[in-house]
Design brief:
Blueprint: H1 5-9, H2 16-31, H3 45-54, H4 60-63, H5 68-71, H6 80-89
């Protein structure tokens, strides 16, 4: 597999996390029998999926669900900031407070 294929994929999916999710979804479909959209030279479904994404073999509507900005509708108004204010309003600290480890350690060496 070409190690630089990720850079070619960033033209279609600019976020690497979204790229990983999109490639995994397409690789899963390929392993279940979907028709490849590029010549089938690769042996692994992941490689085929990345080559398809890098070759712009997808319509924008097919890639759109994997883009993070479009995955949460803006009308919902729910995001990390709202989650934080909701937790603070309920009296819960944000981020959640981790209990102290003081007193849990033993003084002897094993």
């Amino acid at each position: 597999m070409d190690p630089l294929i990720v850079f070619d994929c960033e033209n279609a999916v600019p976020n690497r996390f979204a790229l990983a999710v999109a490639a995994a979804g397409r690789a899963r479909a390929l392993s279940r029998g979907a028709e490849p959209r590029v010549p089938d030279e690769a042996t692994a479904p992941v490689e085929l999926a990345l080559r398809e994404i890098a070759g712009n073999r997808f319509q924008p509507d097919e890639v759109k669900p994997f883009l993070l900005a479009d995955s949460v509708p803006r009308e919902s108004g729910f995001g990390p900031a709202d989650e934080e204010s909701f937790a603070v309003a309920k009296g819960n600290p944000w981020p959640p407070h981790s209990p102290s480890v003081r007193g849990r350690c033993t003084d002897h060496v094993i």
